[in-house]
Structures are given as structure tokens and as C-alpha cells.
């Protein structure tokens, strides 16, 4: 009987020891924080993966994801500096950076964290958009708005142990009631800019054409002057050659004889072979044999 009781007590001790051992061990996984709490108070936070010990029955563990999470916000209205309404639709990438304030302020409840994130991002977006006119918002680059909103929202979330990695504005649209009017105004402005560029281009083109016409006129006048000089020089050279060729009475008579024969040849062309000549003309003298001496 005593041996049975001893075995039973030994089994109880083993089971109790196993229970105590199991209650003393816990595992920290990748991308996870584990907060060890004693009577509700946080006594340590573990973030390195591995097997850990705690005081059984007195201490409990609370697991918190350290992974990056995405939160898609509801679209909301924002007002520009010139009192124009726009609709901002954003999403947020966030993670728990410090689990202690995250637990103390939000009790590590993700829904509460999302509420605080949405408020912080909305306020940051509203402040950025309200400092700009609607035209400036439309023309602004998305990267610059994202950086400003992310930085401003992060400053509001520091006390909650949350880091906003990215607060991205997916779309910044116009309300349906004034979207068409804004588009028409933008089209009109772009058409005015295009007309201005076209007018400047036409003015430059006309200037180039005028300069080209002037250069062509100058070049043509110079060419005509050079041609006239060349023609005059050629005629002068021709007259000089004629003068040299017929500078004696014999050469002059021979030249007149040849020209007279040419004139007679032209006169005899066609069906009419009759010519009437003055007896003192050069051709008559040739025909009578008295023209060339």
C-alpha cells in the first residue's frame, strides 16, 4: 500500500513538474514581439526568435505581430486653400515599432490602432491639401504629397509605438458636381497656352522668312550686278575684237561684202525670187561687180 501511494505521489510530482516546466517555456517567432506580463504589468519584451523562460502561473505572455500591415482607408473629403472640395483615397503601410506604448495605449488591439492611424493620416492630408490651391494640388507630384503626409502622420503616432512606413494617396479626385467644370477650365487654359506658343512660333517663322527674303534679294542683286559687269566686259571685248579684225579698209570692205551676201540670201528665201534694189545699194554694187575692190 505504501509503495502504491509512493508511486502515485511520484507520478503527481512528475506531472506537476511537467506542468510547471511547460508553463515556464514560451517561444518567440519571427516577425513577432512577445510581452511578458506579471499581474498585468509589462516586465519584459522579447523580439529575438527562440525559446524563453518565464515564471509559471505568475507571468503571462502577449504576442504582437511585428510584420508590416496594410490599412485601406475610407475615401474622405478635403478642402483646398481656395475652398474647393476634393476626395482623397489613401492606404497606409504600418507596423508596431515599440510594443510597450502600443500595449499601454491601445491594449494591442489592431482595430484601435487603425482608428488612430486613420485620424492621423486624415489630419495630415487635410493640412497639406488646405495649404494648396486646387490647381497646385492637380499639378503636384504624388511623391511629394506622400512624403509630407507620411512624415506628418508619423509625428502623431509616435506615442502609440506605431511607425507609419507609407501613407500613400491612391487618388485625389474631384466631386462629380464640379469635375466637368474643372476639366473644361483646364482644357481652356491648355488651349490658351498652345495658342500662345503657336503665335510665338509663327512670329519667329515670319522673322526667319523676312531675313531669308532679304538675304535672297541682296544675293540676287549682287548676282545681277556681277552678270551685268560680265556682259559689259564681254561686249567690250567683242567690240575690241571686231575693231581689231576690221581695222583696215580692205578688211572693212570684206566685212561689208559678207554682210551684203547674207542679206541677199535672206531676201531670196521663199517662193518670191524677185528683189528690187537701189542702184547705189551695197547689194546692187555686188551684183554689178562694183561692190568689192
Biggest sheet features: 4 strands, antiparallel
CATH top level of the largest domain is Alpha Beta
Radius of gyration, taken over Cα atoms and rounded to an integer in Å: 55 Å
Number of helices: 8
The global form is rod-shaped
CATH fold field value of the largest domain: Tetrahydropterin Synthase, Chain A
- What share of the residues does DSSP label as strand, in percent? 15-25%
Let me know the CATH homologous superfamily of the largest domain.
Band 7 domain
Describe the structure.
With 293 residues, the chain is of the alpha+beta class. The protein folds into four domains: 2-65, no CATH class; 69-174, Band 7 domain (Tetrahydropterin Synthase, Chain A, 2-Layer Sandwich); 176-244; 246-287. It is 58% helix and 20% strand. It is built from eight helices and nine strands. The chain has helices spanning 2-24, 99-106, 110-130, 134-139, 142-157, 176-245, 249-267, 282-287; strands spanning 25-28, 32-38, 41-46, 50-53, 59-65, 69-72, 76-79, 85-96, 162-173. The strands form three sheets. Strands 6, 7, 8 and 9 form a four-stranded antiparallel beta sheet that branches. A three-stranded antiparallel beta sheet has the order 3-2-5, with no helix packed on it. Strands 1-4 form a two-stranded antiparallel sheet. Helix 3 crosses helix 5. The longest helix is centred in the C-terminal third of the chain and has 70 residues, at 176-245. The model has no long low-confidence stretch (mean pLDDT 79).
